[in-house]
C-alpha cells in the first residue's frame, strides 16, 4: 500500500513547524516587510509619480492669457482701431513705424492716420519721402488715411506762434464709426500686442498715470488713450481748447506738461479707467532714474531693468533735455545723461551697467527700424546748450 506524502510546510521562524502554531502570524519585523516591498518595481514607479505630481502642484503658475473668455476670431475688428496723427515728416515716419509694429505683432484692429490735407500719395521723385510713407501706410499696412485741415486744429495761429500740436489727437474722439480707438504717441517703441485694451469695461477714456509725478499729483498721461468715440465728447473737448487756440489762454508746452494732457485731465481725471503704467506707461527715462519707487509702487521690490522691459507693452521716449530718438545726441550732453553704473561709476572698473545697456538698446532699436522702414537716418545733433528756438522745436517735443 502506497504511503501518501504530506507536503512539507514552509519553515516559519519561531513556530518550530508544529501543528499547534500552524495559524500563527509569521514573526517578521515591519522593516523587513517594507524593504521587501520597496524592491518591487511598481512601488518605485508609484513613488516617482507621486513626487512628480507634488512638484507639478508646486510649480510657478504661468500668467493667464489675456482675456481668455473672448474669442478673438469672432470679433468684428472693423469696430476697433488704432489712431496716429502726423504734422511733420518726422512724426509721419514715427506713425508708420507704430503701424508696422502693430501689424508685425499680430494686431487685428483697423489703423487710422490723420495728416495735413496738403500732403498727398503721389510720389513725384525719389526724395518725396512723405508721399512714399503715406503710400506705404495705405498699401502695405492697411492704414486708412484721413486728411485734415490744420487750421481746424489751431485757428488763428499766426506764423511763429507756439502751439502744442498734440491737440490733434482729439480728432480721434470724433471717429464715432468705431466702438473704441486706441491712440498712441508715436515717439515710442511698441513691444507687445495691446488688442486686449479694446475690451475693457465701458469708460469714456482709459489712460495710465504720469507715475513720474507721483505722489505730488495723480495726473493721467496721454501717451496712450483708450477712447470711446463720441461726437459730444469731441465737441466738448474742442470747445474747451478754443481759448488757448485763439490765444486767450496761455499754453504751457514745457517738457513736463502738454496741453492735451491738461485738457484730458480736466475732463476725465475722476472718471477715467486707470491703466497699469508698468504695462502701458513706461518711459525711457525710468532706466536713468536712481529711485524707482514711483514706478514700482512700493519700497521693497528690487528694480530689474530686463524684467521691467519684458512686462511693458510699449516704452515712450522721454529723456529731456535729450532730443527725441530721431535726432542724434549731443555728445557733451550724452555723457551727462547716460544711466550710471551701479559699481564704481565713471571709472575703468565700473560694473553693473545693465540699465545703461537696456536704455541704449531701446534707442538703437528705434533708429534701426527708422532706417529699415522709413529709409531715414537721424538728424544731426543740435548745438548744446540749446537755444530757445531749439527748445521749442519739434525735435525736442515734450514727453
Automatic annotation (TrEMBL):
An annotated Gene Ontology molecular function: transferase activity
SUPFAM superfamilies, A to Z: Nucleotide-diphospho-sugar transferases
The organism's place on the tree of life at top rank: Eukaryota
Transmembrane feature ranges: 41-57
Assigned keywords, A-Z: Membrane, Transferase, Transmembrane, Transmembrane helix
Protein name: Nucleotide-diphospho-sugar transferase
Organism: Aspergillus coremiiformis
Amino acid at each position: 500500500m502506497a504511503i501518501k506524502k504530506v507536503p512539507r510546510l514552509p519553515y516559519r521562524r519561531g513556530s518550530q513547524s508544529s501543528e499547534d502554531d500552524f495559524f500563527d502570524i509569521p514573526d517578521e519585523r515591519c522593516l523587513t516587510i517594507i524593504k521587501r516591498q520597496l524592491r518591487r518595481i511598481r512601488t518605485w514607479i508609484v513613488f516617482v509619480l507621486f513626487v512628480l505630481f507634488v512638484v507639478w502642484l508646486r510649480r510657478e503658475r504661468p500668467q493667464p492669457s489675456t482675456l481668455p473668455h473672448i474669442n478673438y476670431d469672432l470679433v468684428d475688428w472693423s469696430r476697433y482701431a488704432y489712431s496716429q496723427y502726423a504734422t511733420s515728416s518726422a512724426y509721419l515716419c514715427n506713425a508708420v513705424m507704430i503701424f508696422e509694429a502693430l501689424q508685425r505683432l499680430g494686431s487685428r484692429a483697423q489703423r487710422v492716420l490723420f495728416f495735413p490735407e496738403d500732403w498727398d500719395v503721389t510720389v513725384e521723385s525719389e526724395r518725396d519721402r512723405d508721399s512714399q510713407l503715406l503710400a506705404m501706410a495705405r498699401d502695405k499696412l492697411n492704414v486708412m488715411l484721413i486728411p485734415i485741415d490744420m487750421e481746424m486744429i489751431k485757428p488763428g495761429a499766426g506764423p511763429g506762434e507756439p502751439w502744442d500740436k498734440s491737440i490733434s489727437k482729439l480728432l480721434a474722439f470724433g471717429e464715432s464709426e468705431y466702438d473704441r480707438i486706441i491712440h498712441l504717441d508715436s515717439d515710442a517703441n511698441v513691444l507687445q500686442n495691446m488688442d486686449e485694451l479694446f475690451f475693457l469695461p465701458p469708460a469714456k477714456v482709459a489712460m495710465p498715470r504720469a507715475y513720474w509725478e507721483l505722489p505730488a499729483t495723480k495726473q493721467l498721461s496721454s501717451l496712450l488713450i483708450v477712447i470711446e468715440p463720441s461726437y459730444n465728447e469731441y465737441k466738448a473737448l474742442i470747445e474747451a481748447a478754443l481759448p488757448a487756440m485763439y490765444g486767450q489762454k496761455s499754453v504751457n508746452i514745457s517738457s513736463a506738461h502738454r496741453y492735451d494732457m491738461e485738457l484730458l485731465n480736466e475732463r476725465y481725471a475722476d472718471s477715467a479707467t486707470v491703466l497699469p503704467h508698468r504695462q502701458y506707461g513706461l518711459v525711457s527715462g525710468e532706466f536713468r532714474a536712481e529711485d524707482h519707487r514711483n514706478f514700482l509702487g512700493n519700497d521693497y521690490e528690487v528694480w530689474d531693468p530686463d524684467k521691467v522691459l519684458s512686462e511693458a507693452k510699449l516704452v515712450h521716449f522721454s529723456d529731456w533735455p535729450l532730443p527725441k530718438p530721431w535726432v542724434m545726441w549731443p555728445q557733451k550732453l550724452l555723457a551727462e545723461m547716460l544711466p550710471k553704473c551701479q559699481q564704481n561709476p565713471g571709472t575703468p572698473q565700473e560694473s553693473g551697467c545693465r540699465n545703461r545697456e537696456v536704455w541704449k538698446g531701446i534707442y538703437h532699436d528705434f533708429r534701426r527700424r527708422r532706417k529699415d522702414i522709413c529709409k531715414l537716418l537721424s538728424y544731426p545733433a543740435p548745438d548744446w546748450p540749446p537755444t530757445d528756438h531749439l527748445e521749442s522745436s519739434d525735435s525736442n517735443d515734450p514727453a
